Amino acid sequence: MQITRCPENPIVWPGKWDWRRVATFNPGAIIDDDGRFYLFERACVSLRPLKCSVGLLVSDDGFHFEHVCDEPVFAADELGFPLGTIEDPRVVKIENTYYMTFAHRPYTYNCHPTGIRVPEYIPQKGELGSGINNTRSGLAVSKDMRKWEHLGWITPPEVDDRDNVLFPEKIGGRYAMLRRPMTWFGEEYGCTGPAMWVSYSDDLSSWSGPELIAGPENDWEGGKIGAAAPPLRTDEGWLTLYHGVDEVDVYRVGVMLLDIEDPTKVLARSSDFIMEPETYYEKVGLIIPNVIFPTGNVIKDGVAYIYYGCADTCISVATVPVQDILAYVKQYAGA
Q: Of 171, 28, 264, which Cα lies nearest the Cα of 256?
């Protein structure tokens, strides 16, 4: 299977305004009814503190983007946390409403990159770092992608739970969400490391207890796995990209196929990764080196567009025919 990186990568990079002067990465993605591509970037104003917000970009071809607004469309200040951060937006459209899941910390950390692995994250003195400062996932809604309303929290404050992703349609009449609680692993949970789970809701407020989908299995994902972009509906099942992190913090991309009616049933899962850091912009960056982190994917004319953060610094895109990636992952059916 050949996944093609855009020759103009990275397609979105930091700068232009103060609120995104340091980094832009891990974008949500949508193709709207007008046929245009929209990206929701995680934009970083500084490393110390590591404070991020969400910007909005648009493109006619999926490769060349420009900003829709010169200010963030969603920020922690709007939630009543001026010292907090909004990270890793994933966006879906269900009926006539856009839904954004996001990761949130009430207090930001100081980020000290090492250039080798995950940086040192040091709580700031005084008010920052006080109280519970877990990453908590939230849900925001919008009718126009520009004005967002915080609908509520979708994970408890005492659990570090991010990489939460909504399915783009209801399953069995209920909303469905992938999630990754960081401390839920071990014999009692049925997985050796942080894993992918699914929860359901009738009202987007109360969520069912998580059900395990998949945990780490291979060396390249031995540290943890988690949802990447929202699952894509196909005739074969939910085409689902996920990220795997090895013991030296290299981020790669895996693929699995989930049952349409019951996503806890993994129909096929590749034992090998489908993307890993290869290019300079994927290996070298400001925050974490050796990272491919896809948080947005869309299908247009039978082609999947995969939008991913590169080394927590910039945004790139790769494409692959949907039938090619389906044929690839189905080789592992029943494995």
A: 264
Q: Using CB atoms within 10 A of its CB, is residue 147 exposed (0-12), middle (13-18) or buried (19+)? A: exposed
Place of tokens 């929202």: 230
Alpha-carbon distance 200 to 166, whole Å?
10
Superfamily name with CATH number, domain 14-330: Glycosyl hydrolase domain; family 43 (2.115.10.20)
**Measured between alpha carbons, how far is 149 from 34 in angstroms, rounded to an integer?**
23
Domain ranges, ordered by start, for the chain: 14-330
What token pair was written down for 116? 């080798």
Token pair in block for residue 73: 């469309």
**pTM of the full predicted structure?**
0.97
Helix (H) or strand (E) holding 322: helix 322-330
- pLDDT block averages, 10 residues each, the chain of length 335: 96 98 98 96 96 98 98 96 94 97 93 94 66 87 97 93 97 98 95 97 96 97 95 98 97 98 98 98 97 98 98 98 98 87
Distance between CA 139 and CA 153 in Å, rounded?
6
Pairing state between β 292-300 and 314-321: unpaired
**In the chain, what is the greatest distance between 2 CA atoms, to the nearest angstrom?**
54
Tokens of 32: 């709207």
The DSSP output letter for 208 is P
Nearest Cα to 309, choosing from 331, 330, 288? 288
